[in-house]
Amino acid sequence: MSQFARSFSSAALALTLSGAIAQRVDNAEYFWDTDPGAGNGIGMSAEDGAFDAAFERIFLNTSSLPGLGAHTLGIRVKDQNLNWGAVFSTVIVIEPSIVTAPEIEVSEAEFFWDVDPGEGSGTPMLAFDGDYNSALESIAMETSALPVDGVHVLNVRARDVNDAWSVPFRVIVEVLGGAVTFPEIRVSAAEYFVNIDPGAGNAMPMLAVDGDFGSALEAIKGGGIPAPVDAGVNVLWLRARDANNAWGPSFGIVVNIDTTIAGTVGMDEAATTNDVRLVPNPARMDEGFAILLDQRTSNVRVVVFDAAGRKVMDRAYSNQMRLEVAMPTAAAGVYQVGVYMNGVPRWKRLVVQ
Asked: What is the pTM for the complete model shown?
C-alpha cells in the first residue's frame, strides 16, 4: 500500500470498494485524520455517474490535500437502506512532489571468484542483448581468465537503477584445465534393500517410472522383495546415485511384510500414450502456464516444487486436456512440475521469468 500511498497527484484517484453490506451502494464519503461523523465527510462520486450497484468504483478528489507528512484517510459507504458501513482506513504520506513507483531495472552486473573485492570492483558482465534495460537479464561471463584448477566459489551480483547492489549469488564450480564446469544435478540410478545394507551399488535396482533416469526428481519403482525376508516388521531402505556416481544417504521406512500372500502386487505403469507438455516454457510469473495432454484423463493431480524443494502448488483436475495453472506469487526461477495421472507422476522442468 505504501507505493500506492506515495503516488498521489492532483488528478482524481479511482478506488474499488468491495465491502458494501447491502445490494446497492447509495453514497460514499471520505475524511482526513479526524472522523466528522457519518454523513459529514467529503462526498465521493461514482465513476459511472450513479450509485446503483453493490460494487462501485468511486472518485476521491485530491486537489485539496492536508499538510505534508503521514495522514489517515478514512472512507465509508452507505447502503440503499441508509445505513453507513464501517470506516476503511489507510495511512497516506503526503509529499511535496509526486513520487512514482521505483523503476526495477538492472543497470550493471559483475562477478568475482572466492574473495569479494567490494561492490563495483568485480569483473564486469555483459547483457546478452547488449542493453541492461530489464528487471531480468541474461548475462555473459568472460571465462578467459580463470582461477587455478580446483574447487572455487563463483559470486555474481547486479546493480539496479538506483545504484544499489544486490547480495551476491554464489555457486560452487570446479575449474579443470582452463575450463569451468557446473555440477550436473541428475539421478542416475536407485536401489533398495531390507534391513541389512549390502553396500552401495549391491542392493536391488529400481526403475524410473518414465523409463529414464534423466532428472533431478525421479519417480521410481521396485520389483519383488529380495529373499529371504522374515514376515512381520522390517525396515525398507532406499537410496539414489547422482550423475557423478556418488550414492546419497539411505532413506528408511518401517514396513509390515506378509510372506503368505501368493502372487505379486502390481504397480500401474506410466501412461505412455499420454504425452505431457508445458506451454509456454519459459513462462511469465504473472501469466502462469498450461499443461497440455494428448487425451482426456480423469484424476489428474498437478504438484509444483521450487528449486529449494518447497511445494508451491498442489491441485486436482478432472477430464481435461488443457490444465491451466496460475502461480501469481511465484518468484523467477526453475520449478519441477509433477503431473500425476492415475497415481503415476510425470516430471517436467519449468522456467519462470
From this structure: 0.29
